[in-house]
Each structure stands twice: as structure tokens, then as C-alpha cells.
Fold these 4 entries.
Entry 1:
Amino acid sequence: MNYTALKQAIQDYTQNYETTFVANIPTFVQQAEARIYNSVLFPALRKNATAIVNPGFKYLSCPTDFLASFSLSITDADGNQEYLLNKDVSFIRSAYPNATSTGTPQYYALFGPTVVSGAPTTELSFILGPTPDTNYTTELHYYYYPQSIVTAGTSWVGDNYDPVLLYGSLVEAYIFMKGEQDMMTYYQAKYQDAVGQLIRLGAGLEQGDTYRDTQYKIKVAP
């Protein structure tokens, strides 16, 4: 289902073609997408980015569209790749209290806002432990919000499991309309059922043999 079809379906299901309602359909859809993407971290929400960390500097800026990390690895000059373990900032501070002591990074933690010219920004950064002793290439796999179907016209969810997008949008639409409670309950139930099916796919079938136990996954019948 592309955005044109989704927009038409929302109007047809609600039988509402009023100008203000139609103008707010993009908001309904984007709110539904945010709910979906925070309910199921399926692989289509992952991307990767590379960067260079310099010797003596223990911080690594997150990409601007970063939401949560999946994995972080470093590669040395010889091409050897090693995955870092995700820890808390307090662990890294305790394990490596002297920031001038350097070595091959083994751990990383989500530190906080990136500071530019002495002022914090809205972007986040990682802290590495120990402080890098030379240049390393990093590869970060992370979760992000993909471009909305409203602006892109299509999306992975719309192409592969559109019921969750439709019913999620209808829930938001009925909140806006202050619709009847029985219909609100009905659409909420349909949305929850669709999310459950998407969780089965994204956190079950697509994660059946993942390496890291920290990633959310469920067991499903074949």
C-alpha cells in the first residue's frame, strides 16, 4: 500500500472527507509510524555508518538519525575487525579512570549529547574504553526512523505489512474525530493484533539466529 492508497483508505473507512480532517491525515500516518517503529525493531529499521576515531580521543559522534545501537565494531590498519561490548558509562569510567591511558577499544557506551564549541547539541555520542591508541575505522549498525511514507510515497511497512499502518492511522484519526468508543476499541484491537503479527515477523522469524542476546527477539513456531 502506497501513501495515496493509504490516504484514500483512511477517508473511506472513516467516511470523513472534511477539509481539516484530510489536511491532518499526514499527521495521523506519521504518529502511527512512530508507534509502530517503537513497538517492533525489525531489520528494515537498521542502517550502518562508518567513521574514524583518532588516537587520544575517546568520543564518537552518533549519526544525526540515530535512535539506538545494534552493534559497533572497529577495524585496525591490518584489517582486523572486532566488535565492542555495549556497557554503561560508569563501567567505562571505572575500568579506565585515566583517560590518557590508551589501547584498543573493547567497550562503548551511549554517553550523552555531542558538544560543539563548548555547547551541547541535540545529537548523541559514544564513549569508548579504553581511549584509542591509534586510528581505527568504526562501523556502527543502528536503528533509525526511515523516511515517512507521507514524503517517500512508499515504505517497507506499507509494502510488506500494511494492516498495521492502516489501523494505526485509523486509531489516530478517531482520536482526532473524537469518534465513538466502540469503534475506537475496535480499531485499537485491530491495531494491536497487527502489531502482534509484525512482532512475530520482526522479532521472531527475522531474528531467529541472532548472535547477541541483548537484542529483543521471541520464539515462534515454524
Entry 2:
Amino acid sequence: MQTYGYCRISTEKQHCDRQFHALIAAGVPPENIFTDKLSGKDFERPNYKRLLRKLKRGDRLIITALDRLGREYTEMIEQWRHITKDLHADITVLDMSLLDTTNRKDLLGTFITDIVLQILSYVAQNERETMLTRQAEGIAAARKRGVKFGRPPKPPPSDFDRLKQDYQAKQISSRKAAKLLNVSQCTFLNWTKK
């Protein structure tokens, strides 16, 4: 029987130190902690998939909070079922003692765990949808104020005008002109339209 831990953060700018230390304090060996720096919107995460391949009957997966596992209701329920029923491994959620399949494996314990899991999975997905709505509203408001998103456009180099004339006179291809300017063909063509 092995004990594994799973950490998830949504972006490269975030840190998983708090989760990592909590998992070690819960008895997970550092070499058994898997970490992904990806959104919880789905389970297409490389280290999560590696973890699933490692889990065997009788193993235990520890996570610090349910939303670290994921944020999509249906898939979270399915993943929980896959781990506990198909793989016959246990799951412990550190911040929610009712979500610990190592305790009370009788019908009542399973029933309570299932109810709590369904409620918390719903809350996690609802929080994600609310966050995305607020984010979209904030972006729309910022655009109305004239805020520009993304990188500023790259200005054409000094020899662009000469190569543009050669391109328009069909003396040179757009691909060749872009290569001479050390930019992508798409960038060159966008410059010629302006």
C-alpha cells in the first residue's frame, strides 16, 4: 500500500508550496507527490494521468482540498468513482474530514461521502463558472475603457518598406520577405495590410 499526494495550481505564477507541505505533514513521501500547473476545468493533466497509472488497490490518494482535484462537476464525480471503485484506492481530502474513504466503508459512510462529494463538486464548478463570468465582464469593461490586451504590435523594421514594394511588384514572395526580416510570414502580411 502506497500513499500518494496530488497538488494542482492553475497558473505558472502560483506556487504549490502550501499544498506540498500539507501533504508531507499528512504522511505522503515527497517522491509520491504529483503536481500539475493547469486549470481544473478538465482532467487532461499529464501528472494526474501519471498518478492514476500508479494507483493500485489499497493505495491512498491525499489532496488538500476537493477543488485541487478539479472544478468540473460531472468529471469530478466520475474521477472519484474511478479511483475508489475501479482502482479500489482510497481518497482523503485534508480540509474536509467527511471526504475520507479510509473511514467508514459501510453503506452509511459511503452514502454520506457521496452526498458531500456531490455538493462540494457542484460548489467547485459553480465557483469556476462565476469566476469566468466575472473575468469576462472585467475584460469587457476594460476594453470599453480602451485597455488593450496582449503584446503590443511589433513595429516593422527600417527595410520593411523596400521589401513591401518588392513583394507588391511580385519580385519577391511574402515568405522570402518575411525570412529576410526575420519575422513570420503572417506578421509580414499583416504589416503589408496596414
Entry 3:
Amino acid sequence: MKLILSTIVGGIVLFILGWVFYVLVFGSFITENFGKIMRSPDDYKLWAIVVAQFLQALFLAWIYPKGYKGGSPAKEGFMFGIAIGLLTSVPYVFYLWAQYPVKWQAAVVDGIIMLVMTIITGLVIGLIYGRIGVKKEGAA
């Protein structure tokens, strides 16, 4: 049940954060720096974005309890978000800059957005697992 709830809420959080960061806050920056290599907004495959975000939430929610140490749900989720966010966003920045015709600054901004989204989603997943309760392995 925790996995399902965390996946649903995490997917919704990622979708909302993606819209806030990539459309509202950094929309013109993204268009200016990635517009030549991205689909036009009219040609976006929104369904694929939704699937990707819910898959990301599923994997985050699946991995989270494996490292849960029994501490504060907010702290555990935040630290989990940082760890997974760094694991994914730092290499992504280098891959993006190495393979696409973008300025390094644009790649870094995109990586930071990815990191922040993962931290917030990790925090939310930690709060959900903490609120519902996660037993440590070996606990009765």
C-alpha cells in the first residue's frame, strides 16, 4: 500500500514540479537553450512525460524503504532525495553537455532542476512512508 500511495503522490508531485520549473519559472530559459533540439510544445508527447514521472516515482518509492534507517521521516526522505538526486543529476549534466549542442550553463541549470525535483519528491515519499510507518528489517 505504501508503494502504491508513494508512487501516486510522487508522480503527481513530479508532474506539478515539472510544470512549475520547466514551464512557469524557467520556460523561456529552457526554450532559449534547448528549443532547437526539443519538440515544439504542440508536438510534446505529454502521455510519455506522465509515464516517465510515474515510473520515476515508482522506482524512488521502491528504493526508499531499502535504505530507511528509522529516523525522522522528513530527514530520511530529504537525505534520500539528495543521494538519488545527485546520483542521477550530476552524470546527466555531463551526458547532456557532451552529447547535445547546449551551453554548459544550460546543462547545469537543467541538472539542478532535476536535483531539486528529486529532493522534494524524496522528502514527500519519506513523509508518506514515515506517516504510515516502515518497519526496519528484522524488526518484529
Entry 4:
Amino acid sequence: MNTDQLILTLVADLKPVSHHALIRRLCIGLLLGTAGAAILVAVRLGFRPDLVLALQGFHFWMKWAYTMSLGIGSIFAIERLARPTSSSLHGLWLLGLPVLGLATIGIVELAETPARQWLSMWLGQSWMMCPWWVLILALPIFVSLLWSFRKFAPTRLRAAGAAAGFAAGAWAAAVYCLHCPEDSAIFVLTWYSLGILLATGLGALLGSRILRW
């Protein structure tokens, strides 16, 4: 069999794939994992008792804007790293904008608050548990993303794992907002971000091992 015949044989039963198939499967994985994280919050942590009131205030939406913008940006990274081609990741610098925006809000809050209260704003009541809960809630999302990756063909496995971990951490942090009563920007910037970075590190560590195809 010559090369041309081999190629024709391989593509004989080839079915066209939708241009949106990858992003659709990715979103399904994120949706399933995020639902699992929300159920875990409801069963294990509980929603904050003043959630309805919090939804009417600035700080809750500030936290959601920060975490969800990182989550949406992570989809951009995964969509490129999930392909075998070397797609550009230059647009990832945009992920720094939510960090910069929240840092600006934090500086303004600190400037308007007496210095003796800065430490309590930074640590809140749950700083020791916040990053770890974000990491725990990221696990079902990460597992769902692994399901998504079964149909993908990443070649930069460590980077793809890190992107999946980052996405899991960002969406887990968004879900954690439903429980967490801490509202200062400096708290969110520090401890939520630390949880997201822990999930990113875990994804990078596992990526080279479990994303092989």
C-alpha cells in the first residue's frame, strides 16, 4: 500500500467535527464540575445566611467579578492548550487586569480605613481555611475537566494541566463566594488567589502524568 492509499484508508470513515465541539465539551465539563462544587458548599459549608442581602451589595459582586473573570479567561487558555498545535497564549496577559482592578479597590479600601484595622481586613475570620476550601472545591471541577480532556489532544501537558487547575480554582473560588462572609478586597486578593494558585500548581504537577494520549 502506498502513502496515498494509506491516507485514503485512514480518512474513509472520517466524520467532520464542529468548530465549536472543543469549547462545547469544555463548557460541559466546567458546568458539571461547578455544579458539584456548589453541591459540596450546600452540603458541607452552607450558604452565607445573609446571601440575599449580600447580592444587593457591591462587595459580593466585586468577588464574583474577580473570580469569574479569571474563570472565563482560563477557558481561553485551555481552548488553546487542548489542541496539538502550538497556539499563541499572548492574550493571557489580560488575566492580570482583574488582579490589578481588585488590587486598586484594595488600596482604596485601605486608604479609607484606620491602619489599626488593616490586619483584620487582611486576615478576616477565615484566612487559614479559605485557600484550602477553594482547593477542595476545585477538585470536582478539575475531575470534570479531565473528562473533557479525554477528547482533546494537548501536547504541552504541564501547561495544559496548570490551565485546567487554574480554571478549576477560579470557578471554585466563584462558588466559594456563596459561603464566604469576608468582603474586603485585600482578603479576596490574597486568600482566594492563593487557593487558585494551589489548584494551578496541583494541575501542573498532575498534567504531565494524566493528560497523556
